[in-house]
Amino acid sequence: MTTPIQTSTGAAHTRILGIGGYRPSRVVSNAEICEQIDSSDEWIRTRSGIVERRWAEDHETVQAMSVGAARDALKHAGVAPEQIGCVIVATVSHLLQTPAVAPLIATELGTTKAAAFDISAACAGFCHGVALGSDLIRAGSAKYVLAIGVERLSDITDRTDRGTAFIFADGAGAAVIGPSDEPGIGPVVWGSEGEQFDLIRQNEKWPQAIDAGDKVMPTLRMDGNPVFRWASFEMAKIAREALDLAGVALEDLDAFVPHQANMRITDAMARALRLPDNVKIARDIATQGNTSAASVPLAMLRMYDEGTLKSGDTALMIAFGAGLVYAAQVVTVP
Ligand code: UT7
Predict the structure, then answer these.
(1) Is the CB of 48 under 6 A from ligand 1?
(2) Top mutation candidate among 228, 232, 288 for ligand 1, by most atoms within 8 Å of CB
(3) 144 in ligand 1 pocket by Cβ < 6 Å?
(4) Beta bridge partners of 326
(5) Where are the domains of the chain?
(6) What are phi and psi of 256, to 5 degrees?
(7) What is the DSSP string of 134-188?
């Protein structure tokens, strides 16, 4: 006879208890970007909505920015590092194949040997992390989870590439997720479209770069326009599904916090969703650039700091990127 194995169950519901962020100190203007590509301030503003972006200085490492954002989120949540059972770090720019950066972050924060691992879901990484964190808590695998989205994309951006140099940026955002009496994180709608794998990717594999012998790191390449069209139209459907699964009507939504990929994509999704005028829309990209996994928490944080969002509001988060992959969910603002 098979020996029965006990299983765990956790909290009935979860919510985001606190959010935090880290914005690198160096502000990079469109004029500076245009020193290396044939472009203009006007083109960049009109086509992407980016006025300036943040790039990390040497000391603003993936680990340092993550710890800064996480401390902020823990403070906001009123949760001590020792209470964190799992640290999930979403990133594509921790430039060591192994180990993951999450254990270093968990240790520096002072967690008590929390489970810690990285996930690679590009710009959708943070929303994947929130979904995983919520499910881990409901399954009883952890009581409190720290989900971090962090990037130093300036390290892997070719500054002479007209298609990407102006768009990508650096930063970190974090959320503490924990048990809740009421549902505070709706079901995730997520997925992947591997047939579109090549639209955004590292330009070559490491061995190819080594064989080429030119001592140049691989960088990101993006076929921007197909991604733009896919995100503008297909992602609105995913966002609507997330609302439906959460049982939240458009009229009951307070804020729309999409991945800060391009201001025009945000506008197109808002139009396709027919968002009512009173729904606040995150527009952090203007001064922060596209920070991939960090963009959703940083965008939410700005709205929170500026008073556009308040605790208890209902927000729709959606993110999409290389893979292509996507994830969306409705959350209660901490
Ligand atoms: O975060 C992960 C997911 N990423 C995204 O969601 C990004 C999605 N893509 C985009 O945001 C946009 O595609 C870009 C902002 C990257 C580009 O905007 P676009 O409207 O799709 O431009 P395009 O690539 O269709 O190019 C339009 C024109 C072309 O010139 P012609 O053929 O019309 O004469 C390009 O050569 O703009 C030209 N162009 C530029 N001009 C000045 C392309 N890049 C530049 C540039 N400066 N940097």
Answers:
(1) yes
(2) 228
(3) no
(4) 191, 320
(5) 13-180, 189-332
(6) -120, 115
(7) HHHHHHTS-SEEEEEEEEEGGGG--TT-TTTTTTB-EEEEEEEEEEESS--BPPP
Task: Count how many Cα atoms sit within 13 Å of the Cα of residue 172 in the half-sphere of its side chain.
Answer: 33
The ligand 1 atom at the shortest distance from the C-alpha of residue 37 is 48
- The CATH class given to the 189-332 domain equals alpha beta
Alpha-carbon span 194 to 7, nearest angstrom:
34
Q: Is 37 in the pocket of ligand 1 (CB under 6 A)?
A: yes
Q: Does position 219 have pLDDT exceeding 80, yes or no?
A: yes
Separation between Cα atoms, residue 55 and residue 265, nearest integer Å: 22
Q: Is the pTM of this model over 0.90?
A: yes
The atom number, within ligand 1, closest to the CA of 290 reads: 1
Domain covering 13-180 assigned CATH 3.40.47.10 in the classification: yes
**Residue identifier of the C-alpha nearest atom 42 of ligand 1:** 39
- C-alpha distances (whole Å) from 249 to each of 91, 191, 279 are 32, 23, 12
Percent of the chain past pLDDT 90, that is, above it, reads: 95
Q: Apex CA 237: angle with CA 235 and CA 239, to 5°?
A: 70
Q: Show which residues are catalytic.
A: 123, 259, 290
Q: How buried is 319 (Cβ within 10 angstroms: 0-12 exposed, 13-18 middle, 19+ buried)?
A: buried
Token duo for residue 193: 């479209």
Q: How confident is the model at residue 209 (pLDDT cuts 50, 70, 90)?
A: confident
Same fold, 13-180 and 189-332: yes
Token pair for residue 203?
Answer: 């330009």
What DSSP line would sit under 216-262, residue for residue? Answer: ----EEE-HHHHHHHHHHHHHHHHHHHHHHHT--GGG--EEEE--S-
37, 165 contact by CB (below 8 A): yes
